[in-house]
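## retry 2 of 3
previous attempt timed out at serialization; input unchanged, resubmitting
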Amino acid sequence: MDTEGLYKELKPLLFSLSYHILGSATDAEDMVQEAFLTLEKTPEENINHVKAYLCKMVTNRSIDLLRSAGRQRETYVGPWLPEPIMTETGFPGDSDDPLGNYLLKESLSTAYLLLLQNFSETERVVFLLREVFQYSYNDISKIASKSSANCRQIYHRTKKVMGNLPKENISSNAHKGALSEKFALALMNGNINQLLDVLTSEAVLYTDGGGKVQAALRPILGPDRIVMYFNAIYPKVPKGFTCTVHEINGQTGVIIKIGEITFTVVTFQFQVDRISDVYIVMNPEKLTKFNDGEVRNIWEMDFEDV
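## retry succeeded, writing output
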């Protein structure tokens, strides 16, 4: 069995599947590595279809991890947000199929990943395999250990729920980028009140500090309260920080750094040519992908040495 060739071919799919289930790129990478280590030890004659075998293994292990982490999620300090990932230079699930890549990018948005959290593990797997990865119901049934008819029912039920995700009524990616730039400039220049120009009247701010750094313990509702929040924390942020716009989770977002250390990643949901939801990840354990694999907590550092 050409394990190395299979790894190159199937890692994008397996990573994407696990990341969508867990919301953690770090854990998803571990799931893929463990699956291929198990594959190497499994006699080839015991595997009928290696792609389905690996998908099922990664799915089951991701679900097991999700269930074991359930208690931690319940006691998580403040709002939980998925671990952000950079996608501007490509995502491990990219293919030569434009429609597939579009569906994958859409499914990576923070709002989409959060809505997935409302499903059971099985519902999440069935929906992802059908909606994002375009699997047949017969193939999904083998991975999810459900009948084809049951998978079809699960998909249509979850599809109705996902239809509640507001459509991004916005003109273009360029306009999203312009809004993100205005958001970043307002923070960098300390002109916090300018955020009122880019936020909808019902905007919501979610901050994920995970109990590792100080963050709002509840969502902040309304543009005026969001501005009050940023005005309150602005004096506590190290001087000389930078904000740059990048593609994060398939959408334009903002990376905030002090020196070379990323201490905040911001993603958005866009509505009616403005920003409707702001998602801020400050938990340093979720920013290791932006910091060379290290947990870097600037709030515990001497800023003169950064």
